[in-house]
Amino acid sequence: MTDLSKTRARPGSPGDRYKWTALTNTTAAVFMSALDGSIVLIALPAIFRGVHLDPLAPGNIAYLLWMIMGYRLVQAVLVVTVGRLGDMYGRVRIYNSGFAVFTLASILLSFDPFDGGHGAMWLIAWRLVQAVGGSMLTANSAAILTDAFPEEQRGFALGINQVAALAGMFIGLVAGGLLSAWDWRAVFWVNVPVGVFFTLWAYRTLRESGKRGGGRIDWWGNITFAVGLSAVLIAVTFGLQPYGGHTMGWTNPLADGLITGGVILLAAFVVIENRVRAPMIELGLFRLRAFTFGNLAGLAISIGRGGMQFVLIIWLQGIWLPLHGYDYGDTPLWAGIFMLPLTAGFLAAGPVSGYLSDRIGSRGLATGGALLFGASFLGLLFLPIDFSYWTFAVLITVNGIASGMFASPNSSSIMGSVPAKLRGVASGMRATFQNSGTAVSIGVFFSLMIAGLAGSLPHTLTAALREQGVPAHIATQVGSLPPVSSLFAAQLGVNPIEHLLQPTGALTHLTAAQQQALTGREFFPSLIAGPFHSGLIIVFAFGAALALLAAIASFLRGSSPATEPPVPHKSAPPPRTPTRTASGPYDGREGSAAETAAPSGPADRPESTGETTA
Fold it and tell me: 95-99, 258-262, 423-427, 596-600 — which is least confidently predicted?
């Protein structure tokens, strides 16, 4: 009699149920991680009230920025490192630990014992720890799926994973509004039961199905990369705040010094990676055309998508919703609801494009998605500031469809182009491009918006206040409110006119009609509409240009992933006679992926290619 226990299907075979277990668990993980990247964005008004922070105080803008950017910064810095750890010690082991860290941080975030600035620092610190856990999840989820699924189903699995990640980003906007209406701590409570369940399930069901090997951590590479990227993003926070009479702080010596130092460290990082034996980033992977151009296209789309998300929230919360009769306190929730077509478009297109990419290839779908993404930006560019919602809904649905068309094939192309042993670090590198793009998009798009507002907003605001009877010196003081404060006031659902005039006592000396006009829903949105539209034109034109660059990069990836070997490091031993294995060409290095990764089924092979190996 045959021993059925010995004939169990190996991981990655069509009959193996393990792949669906891996897909379910990793999909929940990336959804949670992405959800927490955006849920705080929409819940910031309740959080600021909960810890008693004045949203318009100049020093508090930095707290707001770091509640948004800190999470993305940590993920951008760490995903490659934890991907490397997954390659060295086991992807499932690092992934499971990430679930535990993420859940613990979520619990501690909901028990903030402090108030004011100290309360904000508590939240920021534990958000950074939460991002560490999220990095461990996202860096290894794609590698786990690539190991578990056969080549012909890999695009579908990665597409589902990508859909979950980006859907979590936008669903977080609605969830943040709903939960913060109950209690601001609830935005962190929601992770706890889900995290506990999936942590236990992951420990019980996931298993190592890919190759792993020894190695060591590139400490100098990690330090220069982390400090360099952190310095650049910290400089962004200074650059967005006024300095020396300027509307932005890009003339601030501290911002300039941080950017210069950050760029120097990142250049040193590249030099170090070319010399060490166990680099943090396999620079040789950039010789793979599909890997290089896929990541460049992903970076451009990530910058455009992240920036558009912030701009649309401000447009809805600060202008459109108040003009249509919504109270300021309710605008964060409704802004998330009115952006649901964006998520729906992505949910519809993501799995389908992943399925199709397995059959017709990635280049056409990803390139078409990038072009459609740019077309949606051009459509938004021509919308009036007080638009018809259905026109807006169609355009953001098209944008979501375009993102779905691009994301799944692009991820499948990138992951399918690398040797099996390097999938963990490749997944981390892909996530670094994506997270860096999202973090950088804040500085890029807000700088463009502020530039559009700065020319006319102060004069327009001062003149309108004086027309309503506000004394000249108070009108000038309020009119000099930095444009960045106006933007964040809109994002936080705060009427800055009422907020700033109340402490001066000016409202008590005005007629009832004037008070009603100044504190009503329409005064500030009507004032900011013209300057804001000028900024929108710049922002959406820039987004369309990014999409075009992404389409060009996507087209240049080739008809299928190349199988060129990574470039040997300068410190590597002399190459031996090249040999070819089932998992890819030998790259001339001791212990290289091509040399050591034994064939174990379709999941260990790069996607088939019709191109000649270099």
Answer: 596-600
Summarize pLDDT for 468-506 with one digit per residue, the tens. 888 888 888 777 777 777 777 766 667 777 777 877 778
Contact 294, 410 (CB under 8 A): yes
Owner of token pair 């960045």: 484
Give the residue among 285, 369, 391, 399 at the shortest CA–CA distance from 553: 369
**Crossing angle of helices 389-416 and 116-148, rounded to 10°:** 50
* pLDDT number for residue 533: 84
Torsion of CA 552, 554, 555, 557, to 10 degrees: 130
Q: Bridge-partner residues for 246, per DSSP?
A: 243
Q: Is the pLDDT of residue 286 over 50?
A: yes
Q: What angle do CA 448, 451, 455 make, to 5 degrees?
A: 155
The pLDDT value recorded for residue 132 is 92
Six token digits for residue 549: 């660059």
Q: How far apart are CA 575 and CA 568, in angstroms?
A: 9
Query: Under DSSP, is residue 572 helix (H, G, I), strand (E, B) or coil?
Result: coil
pLDDT tens across 328-358, in order?
A: 777 777 877 888 888 888 878 877 887 787 7
- With a CB cutoff of 8 Å and minimum separation 6, the contacts of 94 are 82, 85, 86, 136, 139, 140
Please return the burial class of 520, using the count of CB atoms within 10 Å of its CB with bins 0-12, 13-18 and 19+. Answer: middle
Residues 6+ apart with CB under 8 A from 182: none
pLDDT attached to residue 396: 94
Residues 548, 353: contact at Cβ < 8 Å?
A: no
Q: What is the DSSP string of 38-60?
A: HHHHHHHHHHHHHTT--TTSGGG
Instruction: Decide if 538 contacts 451 (C-beta within 8 A).
Output: yes
Predicted pLDDT at 589: 36
Write the CA distances from 22 to 145, 196, 200, integer angstroms. Answer: 7, 17, 14
